[in-house]
Amino acid sequence: MTHVLKLFSGNEFLGGRHVAFVIRTQACKFLEEHPQSKVVLDFQGVRGVSHSFSDELLSPLSDMLGAQAPDHVEIVNCDEMVEKDLKSVARLHNLHTPLFEEPKELCFS
User: Fold this and answer.
1) For residue 90, how many other CB atoms are within 10 A of its CB?
2) Which end of the chain, C or N, has fewer beta carbons within 10 A?
3) 82 neighbors 46 (Cβ within 8 angstroms)
């Protein structure tokens, strides 16, 4: 089972621990209720994130899931800069990072 959480709510910048806390709480609750499932964090429309947002989102998920984080959390539709910021925080804090969806190739016929 997959649960998609859309992070864009009209604001292109996600900052602060409280915003991440709300999102992460929803993700953790779903994964606790459905341990074999996956949460998809959809960043469509988000153009920036703060360090505190990234840390509050990723650190507890890494603590909860450990090395299985990529199996249960996927990040999709992520702006290049947002992906860079999230991965930077993950490296800085030595976290298990979620799976980032590979960019789709555009095909024109």
Assistant:
1) 19
2) C
3) yes
Q: Token match 């190739």: residue?
A: 105
- What's the longest Cα–Cα distance across the chain? 46
Q: Residue 78 and residue 84: Cα distance in Å, rounded?
A: 10
Per-residue pLDDT of the chain (109 residues; tens, 9 = 90+): 999 999 999 999 999 999 999 999 999 999 999 999 999 999 999 999 999 999 999 999 999 999 999 999 999 999 999 999 999 999 999 999 899 987 555 454 4
DSSP type of residue 7: -
Q: What is the 3-state secondary structure (H, E, C) of 53-76?
A: HHHHHHHHHHHHHHHHHHHHEEEE
Angle, nearest 10°, between helix axes 80-92 and 51-65?
Answer: 60
| Token pair 């929803």: residue | 26
Please give the single-letter amino acid code of residue 8: F
At 52, which helix (H) or strand (E)? helix 51-65
